[in-house]
Amino acid sequence: MRRLDRFDPTLRLLARVAGLGSGRGVLLRLLLVVSGVAAAGVQPTAPADARGDAAQIAASQIDTAQVDTSQIDAAVAAALRGTGARGLALAVIEAGRVVHVRAAGARNAAGEPLRTDTVMYGASLTKAAFAWMVMQLVDEGRLTLDRPIAGLLPQPLPDYGSPAGFAPWRDLAGDDRWRALTPRILLTHAVGFANFAFVEPDGTLRFHFAPGSRYAYSGEGLILLQFVLQEGLGLDVGAEMQRRVFDRFGMRRTGMTWRDDFAANLADGWTLEGAPVAHDARSRVRAAGSMDTTIADMARFAAAYVRGDGLSPTARAELARPQRPITTATQFPTLQPELPPAQRRADLAAGLGVIVFDGPQGPGFMKGGHDDITANIWVCLERPQRCVVIMANDARAEAALPGLVEAILGPTGAPWRWEYGALRFWPAAAQALDGAPPATP
Length: 441
Hints:
This protein has 441 residues and is α+β, with helices and mostly antiparallel strands. The chain is built from 13 helices and twelve strands. Strand 8 (349-350) and strand 9 form a beta hairpin.
């Protein structure tokens, strides 16, 4: 527990009571008792019950060395009840080994069960897997992180026009700043583009700042690197991801595009409003987010990643090394102004395809994945090689993800407010999680 003295007398009483019992196990049981009256998390018109949230805040840490995994499963069930989400899958990695994989709830509106081998949308978790593959190319000497892409492409980038599945590179004609772009700049979200060209009011691809000068999340930057690998190195990125990542780690139900064998056990999803939406059968490889996978497969990848399998020690370290300071209050909107230096979090930085931070248990990294029906998060602590991966096929579950991660790993220092902005967490434990005040409903 952290900073409990900042909360109301009810929380202090619960902390004292917990101290008379078996520590974190008692606190978890308090969480389960009060979960039925806790805040619904993402419902803007339903403020949290203060006493219920207090107990949940106190219960925000599960010591997996002291309690069995049934308590984690019970916490997942409580989170689904508390948020109203329909489905959530979770994996735990301890000392670089998968120790627990769990799926709960439904995979579709018919109520068919979500399973650990159900195919779910990976969303931006794709970026971390893509970066891992890129570092294998670096290990092989086929790519250099700091070599400008102008030296890799057979012709100037704008001359490629607007190729199918990619941004309108032709829009950069007359702006030679594209020549300064490197794989490192693209992987650390310092390209200067909006998240995607299609979100620009006029659909035009443009630079908003000098490449490499600051962080601003851009999926378009990773897709540009995909294009460079395709045109400059002659690689089929989908095939390389399959061979180098998915096949290597036994991720049998993972792919960068739709496969017909996914259909028999596939997760649809639900929006924040609870509306069911069918799974999108993606037909194009997109390094920024086209991966379909399962929680069991993602657990295998997360364990291999944190162990450093398949990469040199130098390449593995580079993935989660602080590469570029993050200078904004939140991740989105992507092109927001930078904070004054005194207000920035000094330990928060971009790695290659992940976000890195330093917390009470040492350095860690994380990657989220979001869309209208998807809520994914992956957090790892480097030194103990401990990770939690959560994939939810319901956007309402997002409010529970920080609490579940911290419950399992203990205090991580993960930048939850930067990741999720004003989202009202379930439990409403912003202070216990990252020191920021709870968002106003």
